[in-house]
Amino acid sequence: MKHAFLDEHSHLDSPIHRLDPRAKLVGFVVLIAVCVTTPPDLYAAFALYLGLEIAILVMSRLPLKHVLRRMLIVLPFILMVAIFLPFFSKGGGSYNLGPVTVSGHGLMVLWNVAIKSTISVLAVILLSSTTPFPELLRGMEKMRIPHMLTTLLSFMYRYIFVLIDEMQRMRRARDSRGWKGKWIWQAKVIGHMIASLFIRSYERGERVYAAMLARGYGGEVQTLYLHQFGVMEMGFLALMILTPLAARIII
Amino acid sequence: MHHRPAVEIKDLYYAYPDGTIALRGIDLTIEEGESVGIVGPNAAGKSTLLLHLNGILVGRGEVKIFGLPVEKKNLREIRHRVGLVFQDPDDQLFSPTVFDDVAFGPINMGLTPEEILAEVSRALEEVGLEGVEGRSAHHLSYGQKKRVSIATVLSMRPDLLVLDEPSSNLDPRTRREFSELLQGMKITKIMVTHDLPFVFENCDRVVILSQGRLVADGDAFSILSDEDLLFQHGLELPYGFYPARNERTGDLRDLYREN
Predict the structure, then answer these.
(1) Which of A15, A43, A105, A240 has the largest count of CB atoms under 10 Å?
(2) pTM score of the predicted model
(3) What pLDDT does residue A9 have?
C-alpha cells in the first residue's frame, strides 16, 4: 500500500538540502526558540523571521504548493483554539463589531498565537522537507543525542507503515466478514485487533533482533556519517542564529 | 590442508523454552561449494535448524562452521562468514534507508568508511540494484526488497549463504530472476523451503527434514523424483511438475512432462 512520505521532497538538490543536518537542526530550533520568546508587539522582528524563512524556502526550491499544503494540515488546529479568544477575553480596550464585542487584549493573544505558530510550523516544514529523516537521525546521533532515542526513532520511521499496512489488512479481513461496528459490545473486536497487532509487532521485534544479531549486532546501532561541517554550515548557522538575535536586541 | 567442511552438525537437539522439541538429533555435513536444499513440511524444524548455523539459537550437540565450533567466542567470526537471509524482507531490512541496511554488517565488522562505501556499492551492484541507497525499504517493490536482503549479507563477503524460504511471495518473473541471481553466486548455499521446483532449480543436494529428524539425503534428482518418499514426509510435487533428467546437457532440469 502507498503512503505519504514523512519527509517528502527531502531528496531534492539545493544548497539548503546539501547542508549538514546538524546545522539545519540547530538553526531551526534556535529560530523557533527565539521566535516564541519574542514579545508579540515586536512586529518588525516577526517580519524578519518570516523573511528569513521565505528566503530559505526560495533557496531550497521546494514547491510552494507542498509547503502550503503541509501548513494547512497543522495550522487550523492551532487557530481553531485561538480564534475565539478575542470574543471571550476581557481588557485592553474593546471594539464593537456589530452584535459582538472584541477585546484588544484578546486580539493580541490571537495575533501572538497565529504568528508564532505560523513561523514555527514553517520552520519544521522547511527542516523536514530539506532533510531526509534518516539523515536527521544521524545528525542527532552525531550531536550526542542518546543512541537509544535515535535508534527508537529510526525503527519507528521504518516500521510505522508496516504496522499501518498490517492494521489495514486486519480491518479488511474483518469488514469482509460483514462486521459493522455499531454496537458497544462489538468494541471487543477492536480490542482483539489491538491485542493481535501487539503480538504481531512483538514477534516481528524478535525476528528483527535475530536479523540484527545475524549481521554482527553487538549492542549499539552504528551508522556512517558522511556530512562535513564546513563554511556553508557556518554561514547558515550565523544567518539563523545571529539575525534573529540581533533583531531581538536592536528592535 | 586440513579438511574443513562448511557445516558440520553432530547429534543436534533443540527444544524451545515452551518445551516443544524442534530438533531431535540432526547429523549433517555440508562441503564447501555445495548448494543444499533443506525441505520439509511446515513445523518440521527447518528454520530452527538455520538459526543454529550462526548461533542465534544454541542447542545440545555440536555445530561447526568452517571448523569453528559455534560458541560465544567465535560468534563474531561465524556471523561474518555466514550470511543468513530471513524470509520476510521487512524483518531483514530494519534500517531507515537501504544504504544503512547494506552497511550495517560491514560497520559491525569494523571496516573503514571507504571500505564500507565500496562494499555497499559492490553488494548492490551484484544484486542489480544500483542507485537505491537513499530509499527507504518501505518504498521498494517486494522483489527489490528481496534483492536488497541478499545485498545486506553480500556486503559482509560471507563464505556461506543461508536462505530461509527464498521464493516465498514472489511472482513468477521475480522468482525466475531471483533464482538466476542465486545461481550466479558461486558460494556455498543452503536454503530451506517447501518450494520443491525452486530447490530442483537451485540445489545439487536435497535433505528432507521431518519432525525434527533428517529422513533423507541425496542428490536433488533422486530425492525429488521419489514421490513416495516425499509423500511420506508431507511433501508433494506441485501439479504438473515432475523432475526429469535433461539428457542433452546432462544437467538436471525441470522439464514439464507433456500431458
Answers:
(1) A240
(2) 0.80
(3) 83
